[in-house]
Amino acid sequence: MWELLHNISRNMNLPWLMIGDFNDIAEQSEKKGGGGNDAYACRRFRGWIDKCNLIDVGYSGSRFTWKGGIREGQERVYKRLDRALCNSEWRTNFSNAFVEVLPRIQSDHHPLLLHTRPETSIQGERPFRYEAMWNTHEDLPKVIRSAWNNEYDFPVALNNLTKSLKKWNNETFGNIFRKKRRLLNRIQGIQKSRLYGRNKFLDGLEKDLSEELEKILDQEEIFWLQKSRQKWLVEGDRNTKYFHTKTLVRRRKNKIVKLRNNNGIWCEEVEAVKSIVSNFFTDLYRDERPKRPTIRCSWQYKRLEEEQKQMLERMPIPSEIEEAIHSIGSLKAPGEDGYPALFFKENWKVLQCSICAFIPKLWQDPPLNTTSKPNSSNTYTQDQPA
Fold it and tell me: CA–CA separation, 382 vs 128, rounded Å?
């Protein structure tokens, strides 16, 4: 059966999904109780999933979908034997789909309910995000230079730049997905023309539109690369589909559909889920013992030399600040301001004075970092496809 499914997945570009009891687990964490885990069986099943280019749709609810028996001297065994697997085409068409594990009543298996178009939860304002694809536009350096003012404190200057970039994105850069659809429609119209291949003007126009489309496709690839948080890119091979799929999978994993409270009741309402998360971390980081006992050891840490103390307390110099910024991954997750390290690397000459003046202030007064943040109410208007 596995070989048959492998051939189907390799030769079919249509969206398709498999859901049911696979009688195997992909990870050792998908089993609880019983005897020891068969690591080879897990690798074999996981290898088959990878070989067929399948994606686990994910689930909400109980982690285990099958309840086994009890053997003498062992705990009852639970496994996740039931799941939904799909190809990338299906995942793209149904980006918000997920599997709900329903309560088990009489069977030893939990029933699965597939939600292809779930109700969208209430979303807050979309925060601003600096897009790496903006670097492909020739006007971007000019926009940054004109909007940046070194006379302002760094957070204020960054906030002003954010407003300028949002306006430039809406008025100049535009929506790449709308541009892509428009260009494809125009190229298709030219190729359907009766004069196609016999009219020099149409031939030249098709060439110009194709070159513009190539630029848009490169921007789209960068867009999905940034969203997918992947660290590598095969040069010369457009991986838009791969990055798009990875983005959808990451969003699906990061999205919390329901949580179980302390009473064992599943909660799906947005406010209830928020309350459970807030209470959990509040309890987790609450210090129940304000005065901790002194630990007495038979050995002591080596005392720091005076030179070492001075080095730890010394203010960072501009060269160290520059080296630290350039050592950060370019597309690593940005902070609350929405700017990844790529922005600071590419525009270091413009931003250098403000950054090197602001870092010493943080060094002397760390709480300044929380009181000088840019306005977090900025919203980002670049539309994204589902």
Answer: 9
- Comparing C-alpha atoms, which of 23, 93, 3 is closest to residue 55? 93
Report the interhelical angle of 200-228 vs 176-192 (nearest 10°).
Answer: 150
Gyration radius of the chain's alpha carbons: 27
| 325 burial level (CB within 10 Å; 0-12, 13-18, 19+) | middle
Separation between Cα atoms, residue 228 and residue 127, nearest integer Å: 17
Domain assignment present for 57: yes
| Whole-angstrom distance, CA of residue 88 vs CA of residue 352 | 43
User: Which residues partner with 95 through β-bridges?
Assistant: none
- Angstrom distance (rounded) from CA 257 to CA 274: 11
* Spatial distance between the Cα atoms of 227 and 209, rounded to a whole number of angstroms: 27
Considering the domain boundaries, does residue 368 fall inside one? no
Q: Structural domain of residue 82, as residue ranges?
A: 2-115
Helices (H), the chain: 2-11, 39-51, 88-93, 140-147, 154-168, 176-192, 200-228, 240-254, 270-284, 306-313, 318-326, 341-346, 348-364, 368-371
Taking the C-alpha atoms of residue 347 and residue 350, their distance in angstroms, rounded to an integer, is: 6
Quick check: is 166 in a domain? no
- We report the CATH number of the domain holding residue 23 as 3.60.10.10
27, part of any domain: yes
Contact (Cβ atoms closer than 8 angstroms) between residue 90 and residue 15: yes
Can you read off the two tokens belonging to residue 248? 């959808």
Q: Say if CB 353 and CB 149 are below 8 A apart.
A: no
In this structure, the chain runs to a length of 386
pLDDT digits (tens, 9 = 90+) for 234-282: 444 456 666 656 656 666 666 777 788 888 888 878 888 888 888 888 8
Instruction: Indicate the number of domains in the chain.
Output: 1
* Residue located via tokens 């109700």: 119
pLDDT in tens, 139-150: 999 999 999 998
